[in-house]
Amino acid sequence: MSPLPKRALLAITSYHGPFYPNGDNTGLYYTEALHPYTVLTAAGFQVDLASETGEYGIDPHSVTKTALTDADALVYNDKQNDFNQKLAQIKKASDLDPTAYGLFFASAGHGTLFDYPKAKGLIAIAESVWARGGVVSAVCHAPAILPHIKDQATGKSIINGRTVTGFTDKGEVELNLMDKIKELGLVPITQGAIQAGATYKEPEGAFDVFTVVDGRLVTGTNPPSAHATAVKAVEAFEKL
Prior knowledge:
single chain; alpha/beta; seven-stranded mixed beta sheet; two-stranded parallel ribbon; 9 helices
């Protein structure tokens, strides 16, 4: 059994401004936080939700009838649900004690491309978890934070020399968003990973369930992979 606290920090993007070509805002991809939260709490973790600024917004594209299963929709529409209550009372990362956590899980949404690379409070928590031998995990666009999480022993990113996945360039093209990402000067997940010295892997289909486990580093490719990524993160924690 791990000597680390069985407490997880579930990171949420604080950016919820304009992004989509039609003018829609982006933000948190709802199920990429809901599904990991469900897995982590079922595994006995205490889970705190935090963003860099203590604010959040939900990407409207993530809560459409096509994006949510019937079970997800029931949760989303139940404002008294424990997850929704915690989301409504989201914490500011810099107000938290990094040493309280043994697992760091970064949820996603395109908002993460804006704020995660410079989210000093969230990065500090992840660096503490990593330095103490804990698990760092991220899904979909959340690996945008990984190049900026430093290994205190090497001074390099924790993904340097490791294998990761994350949302694919192919997926951005399928969603007709790659041009917008480039226009805004944002860094696609693939590019950020490779620049940080990681080996990037991807599934055959952009929305196939796909995860990569490299020791204490656990990543997933897309929204359908959020549940499986959290399951793998719990398994990695239990092996510590």
